[in-house]
């Protein structure tokens, strides 16, 4: 008999309370051999964009058929739908609050409302759908139950889009879309866009209180405590501090502008 697919968990629950352990208890109660991977439980509370960023950066590295249970759900108990979504070769379970359109980012998807209550848990509440709906459904999907059995097909998910950078021959205007644990500022400026518009020119990067004259490959290329701009592992422009925290030292917050000005040759 084939082993069940990997089941990942991403939440804003933190570890102070019992919530994460309850999700795992529900999953293991259905399948004691479940293969559970914690992606993150430190998503800022109710931060849909942060959950989407973390999910998007991690999910597509997992083996085909992995099921991702993502519970960041400020609208729990409201009319928003619980859904299961197939994107590429991965399956996602969680609330239809815009999270999965951010993960898909205009990719095709198949979505189903979790209307078949036979795959829900035995507990039913208005405030803990992670325990009562999402974790049990994700577990059943990881054991091979087809998506189509979860409920009716959903033609369109709730839409939430990343802000797009604005670029021309003079420069690029982007924004900080995520700040990681180290205080690194991750922007929405992809490396290909930067290379296309910059060409061989030098540039200045304006980030909070800092003006950076160019990009580097590693933090070690600048002195300790100094800011650096580089292409991060996500493939997007980032600004960090060598052995420091760019968020606090530069006074930059999520959503803040990052401006690039190309220099005249």
Which key features would you list for this structure?
265 residues, alpha+beta, Rossmann fold, Elongation Factor Tu (Ef-tu), domain 3, 2 domains, eight-stranded antiparallel sheet, elongated
Task: Provide a brief overview of the structure.
The protein is an alpha+beta fold and 265 residues long. It has 2 domains: 6-154, S-adenosyl-l-methionine hydroxide adenosyltransferase, N-terminal (Rossmann fold, 3-Layer(aba) Sandwich), CATH 3.40.50; 166-262, Beta Barrel (Elongation Factor Tu (Ef-tu), domain 3), CATH 2.40.30.90. The chain is built from 6 helices and 15 strands.
Structure commentary:
This protein is 21% helix and 29% strand. With 265 residues, the protein is an alpha+beta fold. It folds into 2 domains: 6-154, 3-Layer(aba) Sandwich (Rossmann fold), CATH 3.40.50.10790; 166-262, Elongation Factor Tu (Ef-tu), domain 3 (Beta Barrel), CATH 2.40.30. Strand 13 (227-231) and strand 14 (236-241) form a beta hairpin. The model has no long low-confidence stretch (mean pLDDT 94).
Largest sheet: 8 strands, antiparallel
Reading off the top of the CATH hierarchy, the class of the largest domain is best stated as Alpha Beta
Low-confidence stretches are: none
Supply the CATH architecture of the largest domain.
Answer: 3-Layer(aba) Sandwich
Number of strands: 15
Q: Could you report the average pLDDT, rounded to the nearest whole number?
A: 94
Distance separating the two termini: 65 Å
Oligomer: single chain
Succession of helices and strands: EHEHEEEHEHEEEEHEEEEHE
CATH level 4 superfamily of the largest domain: S-adenosyl-l-methionine hydroxide adenosyltransferase, N-terminal
Provide the domain count: 2
What is the CA-based Rg, rounded? 21 Å
Sheet/helix structural class: alpha+beta
What's the overall geometry?
Answer: elongated
CATH topology of the largest domain: Rossmann fold
Helix content: 10-25%
Count of individual helical segments: 6
> How large is the share of residues in beta strands?
25-35%
């Amino acid at each position: 008999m084939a082993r069940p697919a990997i089941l990942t968990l991403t939440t804003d629950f933190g570890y102070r309370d019992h919530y994460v352990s309850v999700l795992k208890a529900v999953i293991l109660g259905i399948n004691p051999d479940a293969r559970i991977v914690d992606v993150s439980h430190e998503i800022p509370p109710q931060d849909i964009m942060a959950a989407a960023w973390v999910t998007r950066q991690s999910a597509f590295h997992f083996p085909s058929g992995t099921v991702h249970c993502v519970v960041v759900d400020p609208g729990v108990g409201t009319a928003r739908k619980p859904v299961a979504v197939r994107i590429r070769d991965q399956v996602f379970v969680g609330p239809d609050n815009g999270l999965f359109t951010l993960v898909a980012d205009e990719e095709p998807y198949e979505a189903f409302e979790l209307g078949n209550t036979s795959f829900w848990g035995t507990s039913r509440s208005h405030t803990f759908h992670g325990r009562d709906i999402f974790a049990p459904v994700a577990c059943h999907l990881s054991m091979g139950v087809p998506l189509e059995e979860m409920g009716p097909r959903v033609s369109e998910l709730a839409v939430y889009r990343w802000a797009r950078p604005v670029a021309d021959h003079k420069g690029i205007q982007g924004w900080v879309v995520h700040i990681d644990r180290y205080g690194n500022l991750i922007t929405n400026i992809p490396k290909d866009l930067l290379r296309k518009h910059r060409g061989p020119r030098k540039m200045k990067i304006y980030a909070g209180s800092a003006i950076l004259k160019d990009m580097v490959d590693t933090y070690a290329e600048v002195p300790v405590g100094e800011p650096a701009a580089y292409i991060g592992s996500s493939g997007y422009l980032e600004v960090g501090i060598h052995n420091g925290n760019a968020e606090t030292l530069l006074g930059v917050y999520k959503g803040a502008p990052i401006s690039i000005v190309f220099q005249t040759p």
